Every structure is written in C-alpha cells, then in structure tokens.
Amino acid sequence: xxxxxxxxxxxxxxxxxxxxxxxxxxxxxxxxxxxxxxxxxxxxxxxxxxxxxxxxxxxxxxxxxxxxxxxxxxxxxxxxxxxxxxxxxxxxxxxxxxxxxxxxxxxxxxxxxxxxxxxxxxxxxxxxxxxxxxxxxxxxxxxxxxxxxxxxxxxxxxxxxxxxxxxxxxxxxxxxxxxxxxxxxxxxxxxxxxxxxxxxxxxxxxxxxxxxxxxxxxxxxxxxxxxxxxxxxxxxxxxxxxxxxxxxxxxxxxxxxxxxxxxxxxxxxxxxxxxxxxxxxxxxxxxxxxxxxxxxxxxxxxxxxxxxxxxxxxxxxxxxxxxxxxxxxxxxxxxxxxxxxxxxxxxxxxxxxxxxxxxxxxxxxxxxxxxxxxxxxxxxxxxxxxxxxxxxxxxxxx
Length: 398
Hints:
Shape: elongated
Number of strands: 18
Helix content: 25-40%
Structural class: alpha+beta
C-alpha cells in the first residue's frame, strides 16, 4: 500500500518551506516516526517523520526546492522491505563487471540529494570524490571537504618562491534562515531610529550571592544558578517602570504590552535564534534558569519550534559568552529596545574614594528613538544597573 508523505501544517505567517536535506533515498527502508527529511522555514527546521514502516519509493522534491503545506513530497510503500543488494558475481567479463560496479557505486553515492545538488552547482564528478558513508556513499560534507582542498594539476607550472599559493573561492547558497536574518537586520536599520546608550555594572554583589547559594539552589531546583536569570528579573522590573521600552510600533500606533515576554538570543548550528521567556513578571529565578537550559538544548539539537520564538516584547543578547567587551546590539523589530550583555572583566574602579579591583560588565541598550526618549533609555539602563548591584532589591521588589 502506497502512503503519501506530505508537508505538515506550517506555523502561522509562514507560507512555504525549503527542503533542506533528505535523510533517506529511494529504496531505503524507513521506520515509523523516523525522520526522513528536514524542511527549513524562516526561523526553524521542521523534521518530517515517516508515517509508517516500509520503503521510501520516490522523492517528489529535491533539496533546495520550495514546498507548501499539504504538498506530497515523498511516497512510502507500507510494509515493504528494502531490495537486497545485487550480487557482484554477475555473468560478465571481470574487467567490464569491475568498471560497471565502480560506475554504479559512484552513481549511488551521488544520490544523496544535498550532495548531488552541491556537485551540480560546482560541476564536480562523483568519481573524483571519496565518499565516507556506507558503501562509499557521498555526503554533503564529503563534497564540502573536496571543495576546500587546494586544486592541483599535473601540468601546473612550478611555484615561484614569491607565489601567493593556492587561491580559491567557494560559492554556496545562503540558507533560508540566514537570508531571513539578513532581511530582518536590514529592516531594523532602515525602519527604526536606532540609538545606543551604555553603562557598566559591578557584578561583585551578584557573584557573591551566587557563590553563597549556588549549591543549595541547584540541590533544590535541579538547575544551576546563572547570571542570565538575574538580568531577566532586573530587566523585567525595569520594563514595568518604563512601559515605552516594552512597547512596539504598529503603523501609526504604539502598542503597550501589559506583560513581559523576553527573548534570549542564543547561537545555534543554523544561526542566531531568539526563544521567548513568556510572562517573566510571573517567573522565579529557578523557572527562568530551567527555561533557558531547555531552550539551549533545543537549539543544539535543532528542535526549537516556531512557537518557541514567536512574539517577544524585549530581547537580551549576551555577546560576553564569545568574549565581546562592548557592542551596539541591533533591534529585533517590532520591539523598541534590546539589551546587550558583555564579558565580565576585572578593572580598577573607585569605590568610596578608594581604587579597588572589581568584576565589571559593560551594558548596552539599543532603542528606537521614535517611541523611546533618551532620558527614559538612560534611566531604564540605570535601573538595571542599580538592581544588579543590589540584588536583594530584585527579591524584595523595591
């Protein structure tokens, strides 16, 4: 019985998806709920599982194709078994059989859709590429590695001592997610009046509190006490005090949000993503930390859903984990502001007329000057600084 594999219902506002990679080829056996193809949308990659046990008999769209919800992308013969590999002992001359076997192996190896597409774009011969997969199957990574190798030629002239060496370019199509990120960044630059204000915060009080309670916190809540939960709570309180920073522009209207949905920017294998912590005004430090860990794991294994990243009234970006000392974070429209955290670095500062060494962090707030005035932006950032330098105020709500 033939079973149709269709594109699943796509998230709201997403009209189509791109076939990112097939994990099976025609003739392969598949198991029920086994992922057979990845579909890439503007923000997430959707896995399409097999609806039944059987054999994948045909693929309707190759990698790179655009598909819409409900379209048939593959056919599976339910209950069938994969055909056995043909015997090499064929009634042919040994030399001819060897040549044909080599050709068939190369052809089969090149049937991986992502690899075949990349080879076609770069006009490569499958026989010149060493496959690392089963039975010499060529993967996309094998093609990429082949492209990255310096080109050599038996008739190439001798290289002079002042030669620049092997020089090559590699052209690959921009992924759909990267293209969407580029589009959003340009939108932010062209449609907002973005400014950035800076301050710095002494992280010693938060670090002392973490040192004192980290073991008890982890034992009780099953999650480590990090810095991000303090920043989320301090930011939430600041958003409550300065509602225009938590607002957004919709045409000629300003929409004020009576809740704080804070996006925490994280870097995943496919680029920057911003999962949302919803209603942070009702979340504890432990709940925030648990949610961040869960989103981090989802980002690594590519299981973030569109719902995880939809919405958001404010964003926090932490460039400090990559070593950044300072930056001007870019807005995430239609949000009116974004907070940039940075690397904690010991520096000499003056405290009570004395020069002391303290773990300091630069903070940056980029904001849309159309709805946020400079005074409110500066006071918003100072509020975060004051709360972090006296974290008891976060817990006491003062």
